[in-house]
């Protein structure tokens, strides 16, 4: 393979220099080669770069066009530009030392005038991506199809009232599954960007949900037929761009999947910013998914508490991330998932090196949170407190309650004859918050 032109010539591969380093282009907490419990930190965290924000983001927002112009975005042939862009992307992936990347089909290849032309464009870029993956060792964490940007999807894809649009979306996902498999993708994500409604005045809600379930069943069947063994993931989001989306949060997603017999085929890709838009904490969504055995992967970003939309910022809130890591570690990790930086530069951050600053900060924050969460779990104080709080369920009638071996009559008899009035015990929230603070600042 011909050596590509350097697009970040002044930036070397990012090195780990430790917490005391003053080098802005060095890791302070993320040492990908550090071995913890027999695995490298890179293997524990499985960081991934989101192609759409890092290499298709232009700094636009709801009130203005893009501000970011990259030097590699030059030329007349869209496919040639896309290949050059991909060269720049893989140079970045290698220099930031990210082991994975993620993409939508339309991120990496230009859409043609017909589906057949779009597929041909995609094939050319998949071949290029395959060469770059082999050259750099970077792998595909997951692929997906963009079923929300084109005007044909203005009323949804799988939930569109027009069966023609449903069929087109099915054809697009068929191809996206094929190319994800071709690149060795370990997961495939469904994000229902417009699978919802603006008004119920023109919506048959049940019929749309039935159609969405049928679409997902078709995807499962087709994946099996082509030998794709990757994990299917649902990425919940409550609103924006539609007023109400059917995959509102993890809990509603679990209910939907179980209702339609899809729960054994899917796990969840949880995004921090989507959790907060649903009125939940990031940790809450992780815990709900983990409790159902459906925690799959993480889109690593954050929202701005003062803004009401999906701002997709890089998350450096160590407290929030440490609490999230506690829940992830308790669940046994993410398996084939990872931490995908579905985050974008701020509108005034227009220099190519800003891509490095942003991802260094995000990777360091997650690495530090991972280490802090491990320390908290190793000390055992928090786990011991929770275990003691629920100890009454470990024996006697408490155990019978959990095992469903008692009933109202028996419990009524116990209260009247032996137990009497309960004695409330403090939840000690303030003590526990202080305990977490000791780890964060100790």
Helix-strand blueprint:
Blueprint: E1 15-16, E2 26-27, E3 35-36, E4 39-40, H1 41-45, E5 47-50, H2 51-56, H3 78-96, E6 100-104, H4 105-108, H5 115-136, E7 139-144, H6 163-182, E8 187-190, E9 196-197, H7 205-226, E10 231-234, E11 244-245, H8 250-259, E12 266-271, H9 272-277, H10 282-291, E13 295-299, H11 318-330, E14 339-341, H12 352-379, H13 381-389, H14 396-402, H15 408-419, H16 429-441
Parallel strand pairs: 1-2, 5-6, 5-14, 6-7, 7-8, 8-10, 10-12, 12-13, 13-14
Antiparallel strand pairs: 3-4, 9-11
Helix pairs in contact: 3-5, 5-6, 6-7, 10-11, 11-12
Main sheet: strands, sense, barrel: 8 strands, parallel, barrel
Q: Let me know the average pLDDT.
A: 96
Strand order of the largest sheet: 5-6-7-8-10-12-13-14
Q: Using only CA atoms, what is the Rg?
A: 24 Å
**Structure classification:** alpha/beta
Shape: globular
- H/E series: EEEEHEHHEHHEHEEHEEHEHHEHEHHHHH
Number of helices: 16
What is the CA-CA span between the terminal residues?
50 Å
Poorly predicted tracts of residues: none
Beta strand count: 14
Work out the helicity level: 40-55%
User: What percent strand?
Assistant: 5-15%
